[in-house]
């Protein structure tokens, strides 16, 4: 008997932008950082997977059997939503699409280095009219034609963490990905070109020791670690009358920021939260140089939140902030520059 041994390391995770809501990328799609998919091999670990397969059980068995009857069970994908949690380095090319997938509002500058600006909008894209960012996630065994695909996938929460002790100092991401419908198993070969990951472009990591700006209300905080948590709180709504839910409702945009900072006269006033500072304050985190490839900037207007009243010389003090809308300042803005003109 012949046995084809398969390991996790021989699996490829492909991620690309769809043109049409409801239609998976074809097996001929390219994942090499080129139009129209702008796809790539995601260099991530899927630490959690829900394939969205429904098993509907009967609540009783009144057919003369003490064991529930198989005929009354239903396995289907109706109204389902596959969910995955992906973790890994927050690389420049991957982060560009992942930010769009969670913020769902983007404008891209014309000309190199193609700065992309992400902001919280007062509305949301109409996915059914192909607005916003949605894509196909394909899990492919590298040595076979076994493919698992999830369509219309977006990111409901993105957590970015950068400190000297995790990821060898490189920014790490945790992305909660959700799709429309369950996972579709296909026996086909992905014949398009793929490159790991965006090798045709210079790849950028965001290192803790390259964090150029860390300020709160203009005060320079000595950082020991930062975490940015972005959510759109997406939920499925409606039905397309063909087994899928109709679209996503992005019920609330939120962003939380945690800074582990050195305790000093600049940082401690923000530790007390709302009792110490009542107005929203701008938090600015920057890597790289504006208008240059690899630039990354977060400008977030947040309300200081109460933090644990503890201090550790290694972990510092914990400063927490949550975005709020004061009607004047943009609550969340992120700018990322790379060399890819995606036409967003």
What distinguishing features does this structure have?
1 helix; 344 residues; mainly beta; single chain; two-stranded antiparallel sheet; 39% strand
How is this structure best described in words?
The chain has 1 helix and 22 strands. With about 350 residues, it is mainly beta. The protein has one domain (about 10-55, about 75-335). The chain has an 18-stranded antiparallel β-sheet that branches. Strands 4-5 form a two-stranded antiparallel ribbon. The chain is globular and about 75 Å long. The N and C termini lie far apart (about 50 Å).
Strand-helix topology:
Blueprint: E1 11-17, E2 40-41, E3 45-50, E4 54-56, E5 74-76, E6 83-89, H1 92-103, E7 106-108, E8 115-119, E9 135-141, E10 146-162, E11 172-178, E12 184-187, E13 211-216, E14 219-220, E15 223-231, E16 234-237, E17 247-250, E18 254-261, E19 281-287, E20 296-305, E21 317-323, E22 332-337
Antiparallel strand pairs: 1-2, 1-9, 3-6, 4-5, 6-11, 7-8, 8-22, 9-10, 10-11, 10-12, 10-15, 13-14, 13-19, 15-18, 16-17, 18-21, 19-20, 20-21, 20-22
């Amino acid at each position: 008997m012949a046995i084809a041994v398969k390991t996790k390391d021989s699996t490829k995770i492909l991620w690309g932008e769809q043109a049409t809501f409801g239609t998976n990328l074809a097996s001929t799609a390219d994942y090499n950082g080129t139009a129209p998919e702008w796809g790539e091999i995601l260099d991530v670990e899927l630490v959690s997977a829900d394939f969205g397969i429904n098993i509907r059980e009967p609540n009783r068995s009144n057919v003369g059997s003490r064991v529930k009857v198989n005929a009354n069970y239903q396995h289907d994908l109706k109204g389902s939503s596959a969910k995955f949690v992906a973790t890994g380095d927050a690389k420049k090319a991957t982060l560009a699409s992942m930010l769009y997938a969670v913020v769902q509002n983007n404008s891209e500058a014309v000309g190199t280095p193609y700065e992309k600006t992400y902001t919280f909008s007062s509305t949301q894209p109409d996915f059914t009219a192909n607005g916003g960012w949605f894509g196909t996630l394909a899990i492919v065994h590298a040595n076979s034609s076994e493919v698992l695909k999830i369509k219309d996938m977006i990111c409901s929460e993105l957590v970015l963490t950068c400190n000297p002790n995790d990821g060898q100092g490189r920014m790490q991401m945790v992305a909660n990905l959700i799709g429309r419908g369950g996972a579709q198993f296909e026996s086909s070969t992905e014949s398009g070109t793929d490159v790991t990951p965006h090798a045709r472009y210079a790849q950028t990591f965001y290192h803790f020791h390259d964090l150029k700006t860390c300020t709160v209300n203009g005060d320079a905080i000595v950082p020991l670690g930062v975490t940015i948590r972005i959510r759109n709180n997406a939920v499925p709504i409606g039905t397309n009358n063909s087994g899928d839910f109709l679209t996503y409702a992005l019920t609330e945009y939120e962003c939380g920021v945690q800074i582990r900072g050195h305790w000093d006269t600049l940082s401690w006033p923000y530790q007390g939260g709302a009792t110490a500072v009542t107005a929203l304050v701008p938090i600015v985190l920057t890597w790289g140089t504006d208008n240059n490839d690899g630039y990354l900037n977060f400008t977030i207007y947040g309300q200081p939140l109460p933090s644990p009243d503890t201090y550790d010389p290694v972990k510092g003090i914990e400063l927490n902030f949550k975005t709020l809308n004061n009607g004047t300042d943009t609550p969340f803005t992120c700018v990322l520059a790379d060399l890819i003109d995606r036409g967003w």
